[in-house]
Write a structure and sequence with these properties.
This is Protein HASTY 1. Helix content is about 65%, strand content about 0%. Among the domains are: about 80 residues, no CATH class; about 150 residues; about 110 residues, no CATH class; about 150 residues, no CATH class. The chain contains 54 helices and no strands. By secondary structure, the chain is mainly alpha-helical. The two termini are about 55 Å apart.
Length: about 1200
Amino acid sequence: MAAEPAAAAAASAAAAISAVMDWRSSPDARAAAFAYLESVKSGDVRALASTSFLLVRKDQTSEIRLHGFKMLQHLVRLRWEELSAAERNEFANLTINLISDVVGPHEVWALKSQTAALVAEVVRREGVDLWNTLLPSIVSLSNSGPIEAELVAMILRWLPEDITVHNEDLEGERRRSLLRGLTESLSQILPLLYSLLEKHFVAALSEHAKQQMDLAKQHAGTVTAVLNAVNAYAEWAPVTDLAKYGLIHGCGSLLSYSDFRLHACEFFKVICQRKRPVDVAVAEYDAAMCNIFQVLMNISQQFLTRSGMQPSSIDESEYEFASCVCETMVALGSSNMQCILADGARTFQFLQQMLEYYQHHKIALHFQSLLFWLVVLREPSKAKSVARVSGDNSAAGNSTFTGDLSTEKEKKGVSVFVTDEIYSTILDVSFKRMLKNSGSATSGLLELWSEELEGKSDFCNYRTKLLDLIKVIASQRSVIAAASVVQRINVVFGDINQATKSPQDLDAMEGAQLGLEAVVSAIFDGSVDCGKTDLETKSQLHKIFEGLLQQLLALKWTEPNLAVIHGHYLDALGPFLKHYPDAVASVVNKLFELLTSLPITFQDPSNNSRLARLHICSSFIRISRAADKALLPHMKNIADTMAYLQGEGRLLRGEHNHLCEAFLVMASSAGIQQQQEVLAWLLEPLNKMWTQVEWQTAYLSDPSSLTNMFADSQFMWSIYHTVTFFEKALKRSGTKKSSATPQAPTTTVPGYLHPMSSHLAWIVPPLLRLLRCIHALWSEPFAQSQTGEIKAAKNMTVAEQASLLGETGKLTKGQVAPADGLLDVQRDGESKENNIKNWLRGIRDSGYNVLGLAATLGEAFFRCIEGSSVTLALMENVQVMEFRHLRQLIHLVIIPFVKYCPADLWPVWLVNLLQPLFVHCQQALNYSWSSLLHEGRAKVPDSIGNLPGSELKVEVMEEKLLRDLTREVCSVLWALSSPGLNNGLPSLEQLGPSNRMDSVLKNLESFTSSSLTGFLMLHIGTALPALRISVEVFTWTDSEAVTKVIPFCGALIHLAVASNQAELRQFVAKDLFSSIIHGLSVESNSVMSAELVGLCREIYVYLSDRDPAPRQVLLSLPHIKQEDLLAFDDSLSKTASPKEQKQHMRSLLLLATGNKLRALAAQKTTNAITNVTSEQTATVFSF
């Protein structure tokens, strides 16, 4: 480019940068300027280079120069390969010459940082040869002064960026070459860094003493830059080298200086996370780590001593540093304890310091220590926390005795040093910290967890870790844990005769109950092998928990909140009752006593009493599950008591259902025959009512007759509780379910018949009629003829609104969800609208669940129910279903049907269900996404109802409804392509070469019995809308939906490759290929960009020889040339590695689209230089 045109282009770019940065620019002017700058970045690469170099000249403003550096970095990162070798060499020389432009004393720090980043980027791209050429001049420059030394440190800091930060572009030889080159230079780089650190630290002290503050700040800035550089090498350079060249000593010395201590501590934090490698001398590595232990323990002890004696003298900055030190020690102890285990005194001192951190009143320090104790105490027999030890013990030391002792202690791990006193202290602190700072809870001087500071959801994670630690200790020191938790319970109970308790007391009692549950479950529920526990320990445990149980049985609490807590304490002892069943009868009697002590009232707006009664009934379920067979002898007594209470009207239907569920849990421990007998007993009265023709004729003939039921609130809720019990019966009966996802419905054990199988024939038909009538309430003409109350009842509940908005605690009077089990009849003061609304939601929830759970029974369900009746009930009015209901139907019913339907029934069941579902969903989703993407608001059919607040909330809810349904529909496609339902589909590796002729391929029909995806493709009416969804989802901005549809796309590709079906092959080779590439232009898809590139690679590698479409699709991209595609084919032919082929595909797609695929570019820019625009030194230099 001639000089004048280049200058003109630079002037235009500078003007555009100024317009973008100027707040006075109009939005249109700013947008036009931004578009121009983007065109320069994507335009001719040589013009971009010349323009950018002119923009970084010293005669430009700082803002323009900064933008020029970013444009140069963009070129190096994304377009370097477009330059010839000579041009790259010239570019590198020009870049190195820029160093002299930014070493002035008044140069902006950000410009120095960006220059260093650019130099490092060029070196990484050009490789080791350029670095070897540059290194001598770099060393020479560092001797010129503090500013030059700071710039050198910045360059050294950014050089290993691609080693420490994953970068897909540097996988393979280039990354190894960079690592090799820098490793060979460590003998020069590390001494240089130590020399700069020492030299400028001493100079900073000296200038500060002379009151030469400007010079002192320059030297301090250099020290900080060197520390940042050192930290970049701490992650990968050999620990022995870091010790050898003095950097461990140097950084340790700086921990005492406030301006540098956080950066120095960061060095230790990084290095402490590393583990002893197998290819180094053990003695040298351990010596370096022992040195680090001592450095950190010394600085830690200084803080802990001051904190204990003068806590008021420690400010927040010191606490911040202490937190960093503690976190570093946690990393060190978790990964490298084996380095000091031979030194018992040092090990014990380290553990004592970590215990002091655990006891510290500051939550941040306590939490860091919690992570350490979890690691070192878990599985001590396996010494899990100890890093793997090299098999070569010859280097462990000259003394054989010392080496043997070290190895022996390493085998035993840390547990040999943990005393009973340490265990007791940890437990005591853990029980006290089970609370959060809710305004009412207090725990002495401890700083409790605050939701405002740490977050509401994080408290659950924190408390889970506390409970895990309690369980770990209980499994190792059961008697200590038992005694500690009982002691804590006695403290929080206080005066047991006190009728009411304060909110603080209730919080403390709930926390102690969680601790009791953790201890009891760890001791009696599997963590401890009770068969191997010695008799003395068993006797002690029995005495402790028997004493606690007698104390609980003697309590006379009748206030609802206390009764709930009382019940929870009793059910927490469930695992104890499993081993000591003599106490079961008294516990059962006490629970019934608690239940009957609470009045049944419908006038209580808060529902406290009824909610407490439900909690107590739930305690029966938990005890039944935990105590296993211990309750079997008491089943008749429980049944008689239930019958007596029900006969006297003292047991509500929801409570009865809970107790029946407990019966099912008890029966499950006695075997299938006992379950069948219990089910027959429990279901017999329901059978008589449920199968009556009269109520079905009166209420289920059509939707208008269903509305007549709404006038009979008691019968309406009786129906609800019947359906919910069917749901509970299906959940609780049968054999113990595996956590594994079912792969195919045919894996049922031969001869096994689920206890509920014989009941499905009378349960399901009325339920289908009921659901059909509910669905029809939204259809015409029934929707128009309804009363205002019914129309309003079809709106969302407050709970549903709050859920969509991510809010909690929004339920108000009259809006309690029926799933809470609180509604048996309409309560006083409750509107009929809310009564109907809650009933409709509850029936839909439980009814769908019954169908989905029944489907898991496999053939027992699918062969006893007419598929046509199911299709009619579920799909007749699918087109008028609201998105929230449709999502629920898919999640609870359709997906289980897909997973468990026998293959020979696919034509009868799945085709008829999926065709109307896919047709409607494809049309509805396409319309709603189009309105969201083009008009900014999702148009959904849901009746949100009255929502206090801004219109923005409604828009948020509408978009959430759209995204939720989209993801659920894609989940159906994911289920259709699951491996267990497509086991007849060969892998691409099995299919072999990609150039086979159609004549040797199978017909699509040959896959219909062994591949559900193949079966689906034969039914055009069902397949077409599914295929449309699979391509349209890539244009929608929902990465989670894309993640779910990827397996379906993969199955389609496999089918297209394995079969001779021309239409499917053409769809995959053209439509799907184009859509996936388009999906890579959506930035939110960057998370799964590797999977999407993998699909592109499969399509091209396996179909391009059989169909011209893949090549045509690539050649249609804006920046590709024919020779690019030929070079790509040549690259593919030279490797059979899928990983390398994916990398070639990725590079081609970026080239062909001019780096416009944002999903790939976004991933690439995450590896770019970051945090180089603000200086990190202290504003006031002080020691």
